[in-house]
Design goal:
By secondary structure, this protein is α/β, with parallel strands linked by helices. The protein contains four helices and 13 strands.
């Protein structure tokens, strides 16, 4: 079961997001949960939220939701509103999570979201207003069209076999290094053979990207 987590910050482009998630089935999302001001991003798209959770400190206007869908958290707590939303989705049985938003604005919140993405294997995609991040684990692969991409291992070590990149990744020691602004001229394939990776692309550069299970 798939769930979407809407977080605050700049929202991704609606049309591009539908194109990016086409192969993963945006319409197959079982439920939508908003973390605090992420509700406004979701509602701007016309999304009907199934739940909202947060402390309300970043809301710009009152929420038009049934009280049963609202979970108000204390402002002083040991987790972010987005992490609370992720936990709620997992408690409701979600097996796959898509994170929408979280770009721009406060760097500390972006880093907190990045840490959350790294620690949560159920998060498969994170789309901000400017980037797309695919989370791949062995033996998944990613096929991309022309543009640039960056590759980071989210575990202590990992390996990727690639074709079509200007700088191949096969011999990279990802326990010490990463690939930044690698180039794709035609089409490239990245296959994870060990570990879990973040593949980051500029959202508007690689509309042909496709994750293959």
């Amino acid at each position: 079961m798939k769930a979407a987590i809407w977080t605050g910050g700049e929202a991704p482009d609606q049309q591009l997001t539908h194109e990016i998630l086409g192969q993963r089935g945006f319409d197959q999302i079982a439920f939508h949960i908003a973390a605090d001001s992420g509700a406004q991003n979701a509602q701007a798209w016309g999304i009907t939220l199934d739940a909202w959770i947060g402390d309300g400190d970043s809301l710009r206007r009152p929420l038009d939701l049934e009280p049963s869908k609202l979970t108000l958290l204390p402002r002083d707590k040991d987790l972010s509103d987005t992490e609370a939303a992720v936990r709620l989705a997992l408690q409701r049985g979600a097996e796959s999570l898509i994170l929408l938003g979280g770009g721009g604005g406060r760097m500390d919140h972006w880093l907190a979201n990045l840490s959350l993405v790294r620690q949560t294997p159920q998060i498969t995609t994170w789309i901000t207003a400017h980037e797309r991040i695919d989370l791949l684990a062995a033996p998944q692969n990613l096929v991309v069209g022309p543009g640039t991409l960056s590759v980071f291992c989210v575990e202590q070590t990992g390996s990727i076999v690639s074709s079509g990149l200007q700088w191949p990744l096969d011999a990279v020691d990802f326990s010490q290094w990463y690939s930044l602004s690698n180039r794709v001229e035609g089409e490239a394939t990245l296959t994870v053979t060990k570990g879990r990776f973040m593949i980051m692309t500029r959202e508007k550069e690689l509309p042909q990207s496709q994750v293959v299970p």
